[in-house]
Amino acid sequence: MALAIRDVREHDLDAVLALNNAAGRSILTLDAGQLRYFFEHANYFRVAEIDGNMAGFLIALREGLDYDSPNYRWFSAHYPQFVYIDRIVIANAYRRHGLGRIFYSDVHSYAEVRVPLLTCEVFLEPRDDVVVLFHGTYGFQEVDQQKMGPDGPQVSLLAKDLPSFAYVRDTWLEHGGLPDAPWLAERELPHGSGSQRRAVGERRS
Fold first, then answer.
1. Using H for helix, E for strand and C for coil, what is the string for the chain?
2. What gap in Å lies between CA 17 and CA 90, rounded to an integer?
3. Is residue 86 part of a domain?
4. What is the mean pLDDT of residues 181-203?
5. Number of independent structural domains in the chain
6. Does the global pTM surpass 0.70?
7. How confident is the model at residue 193 (pLDDT cuts 50, 70, 90)?
């Protein structure tokens, strides 16, 4: 089994959209325009391929975007720097094989050289104890709870401290930036999208 984790490409978007909208009630649906926002603005948007097949994806955002998610807005109001995991989706055929942990390890590596905090939320309505346990064993702690709108579900807002960030900040970020290495490179956003800041509807991780 050959596994590759790589940045999303434009030709992946139809498959990503189909995978997202087939994921069930724990993942909010997307339309093509909302997915395009992520493609143009998400700092971390990677897909997993297994033997050439789309197996899953994870989308995460830095602070400072005009993203109309109540959970992203909560973290924006409380923390100056963070990476927010908006959503992770694994195809049914590849669940229970550790791909979620691989993705979380990858986004952790991305975040810890850039920010002091990795954040996300989990649904409490309906509550999935496997998901709650997964995040707890990965070092996330609850920092608050809120409802996603008047009629939305209750969610647990989670954050994980990234202690390596202080060393990276003091050694590199305050002295010219990260080393020029492929694994440290930022995702290349579509041309011209960096200045496009527009809001989209509520999403989840």
1. CCEEEEECCHHHHHHHHHHHHCCCCCCCCCCHHHHHHHHHHCCEEEEEEECCEEEEEEEEEECCCCCCCHHHHHHHHHCCCCEEEEEEEECHHHCCCCHHHHHHHHHHHHHHCCCCEEEEEEEECCECHHHHHHHHHCCCEEEEEEECCCCCCEEEEEEEECCHHHHHHHHCHHHCCCCCCHHHCCCCCCCCHHHCCCCCCCCCC
2. 12
3. yes
4. 67
5. 1
6. yes
7. low
Q: Long-range pairs for 188-193 at CB < 8 Å and ≥24 separation?
A: 188/7, 189/40, 189/41, 190/10, 190/39, 190/40, 193/40, 193/41
Residue-wise pLDDT tens digits, 157-178 = 999 999 999 999 999 999 999 9
Closest by CA to 57, choosing from 97, 106, 24, 96, is: 106
Closest CA to 165 of 114, 106, 108, 104: 114
Please give the residue range of the domain that contains residue 102: 3-178
Torsional sign, CA 81, 190, 28, 151? positive
Percentage of the chain surpassing pLDDT 70?
93
> Which CATH number fits the domain that encloses residue 105?
3.40.630.30
